[in-house]
Amino acid sequence: MPHQEQVLAHGNLCAQGPPKNAGYNSNPVPVMTQTESRDKWGKKMDFLLSVIGFAVDLGNVWRFPYICYQNGGGAFLIPYVLMAVFGGVPLFYMELALGQFHRTGAISIWKHICPMFKGIGFAICIIALYVSFYYNTIIAWALFYFYSSFSSTLPWTSCDNEWNTENCTNYFGKDNVTWTNYSRSPAEEFYTRNVLVVHESSGLGDVGYIRWQLMLCLFLIFTIVYFSLWKGVKTSGKVVWVTATLPYVVLLILMIRGATLPGAWKGVVFYLNPKWEKLKETSVWVDAAAQIFFSLGPGFGVLLALSSYNPFNNNCYRDAIVTSLVNCLTSFISGFVIFTVLGYMAEQRNVNVEDVARDKGPSLLFITYPEAIANMVGSTFFAIIFFAMMITLGLDSTFGGLEAIITAVMDEYPDTLSHRRELFVLGLVVVCFLGSLSTLTTGGAYVVKLLEEFGVGSSIIAIVFLEATAVSWFYGINRFSNDIKSMLGYTPGLFWRVCWVAISPAFLAYIIISSLLNPQPLSLFDYKYPDWSMTVGYIIGASSFMWIPIYMVYKLVWTPGSLKQRLAVCLRPERTLPDIHTDSMSLSPVP
């Protein structure tokens, strides 16, 4: 046992007396802010790139541009920025500070904050599993496209392939082509009939067989993930130097290429043309709030995990501002990359931009953009770098999501898992791979959509709402502010404290209530999800959230004493030692 741990185990530091921080008058929460045994980031940039890589994902490329033009173009930036400033960034900052101060994962951190809410940690891990079940399948689709791009003529260029139907219509480079409601582009048929083979499934009731090609792609993805995570943040921190920076190089190349295409200006005007009347619609503000929340990603346990490997005095405030700005700017720039190409397609079809901008979600990346690339000069090169970008964007987020589970579980059961990280990561990757098999079937796209909507959706927002409430009202905003002061040397300003106590929870409650009052029917391609699938979806959503009340009841039942005494114990953070800060082999009180 290292010297520091021997001292801690015997409690020899307890005689030092109470900590000097004013906010710790009652029940100070002890924390090991640095231990020799805990892994650390090799460099500061390893951490920043890991956080940026997690936050900047496929959703920045496919969801933000669509949400922006759908909700008023340039006018949408007003609610987007407001929701970011008052909701997204404060929650992002809060999680980075919590993880860095308490230096532990999403499960065990709650004994230092409010033990009754420990079920939040278990719920977060379950949601992260659901995400891994479908998100890596989307990366596998991108890998399939990446492999298919290594040809002189891209396979989704023409209608002369075995998977094409009589409805396949290729209008690029041709005059007097009639486009009807039944017409399908070569890119759409490549995606639906050759990659997904969704035409061989009648829906969720008959998902069909597993596509071995996609299973092989997914196996390669998880192999990369395993060897990036098996040794901890020292290995994943090196991998992100490639996976987090390559997308920006590719985005720059694609933006320059898009700007030179005929008709590109039409797409930009359509993207940014402000429709001020849209600001009167509640749905626009709900979309802005949901977009910034899912873009920055608080509540997934990733920020807690990644920041827990930081030095105690790292400036997490600056990190939160920098990474949030990078995230939001990436979303904005991605809009130019997408809409310059949509303007080009509108020019080629001789239609309005809105007629080619109907696809959203994965379809935007797997149908619309590849279709435009296929008809550019140098199409093979642009297809290769585009899908390489998609793969790296996805891998970064997968690294973060699985590291959240790994850190949370290993910190909760250190005696069992501390020296078995490689085996635990292997077991986790195998579980994620097996859980993804249903998404690799001919009807797998329907499963992906269901997991995306219900596996995460309102559950994660409700969990973050409880997390923000527990930290601000049960742990106490003064205590939390003093935690930050002990790390940074200054107390957070009034703006941040007001956001944490009132505005950010209200921001989350607003999203939850709006989504419950205005449920949207679920559909994919021409398939309408049946009522029984909605019930399955709600069960999936409840299967993560239910662990919060279950643990609360468990904690109350098994804690001795009267009800009042039990509540006091369950709500009070555990105290064993005064706060200390250890650096290398020495111990010193936190200033």
TrEMBL record:
Its transmembrane ranges are 47-65, 77-98, 119-147, 209-227, 239-265, 285-309, 321-346, 372-395, 423-448, 454-474, 494-516, 536-557
For whether the record's keyword set contains Transmembrane, the answer is yes
Q: Where in the cell is it found?
A: Membrane
Q: Which Pfam families match?
A: SNF
Q: How does the protein associate with the membrane?
A: Multi-pass membrane protein
Molecular function terms from GO: metal ion binding; serotonin binding; serotonin:sodium:chloride symporter activity
Q: Which InterPro entries match?
A: Na/ntran_symport, SNS_sf
Quick one: a GO biological-process term for this protein? amino acid transport
Gene Ontology terms: cellular component: neuron projection; plasma membrane; presynapse
NCBIfam families in the record: Na_transp (NF037979)
Which family would the database say this protein is a member of?
Answer: Belongs to the sodium:neurotransmitter symporter (SNF) (TC 2.A.22) family.
Name of the protein: Transporter
- From what organism does this protein derive? Cyprinus carpio
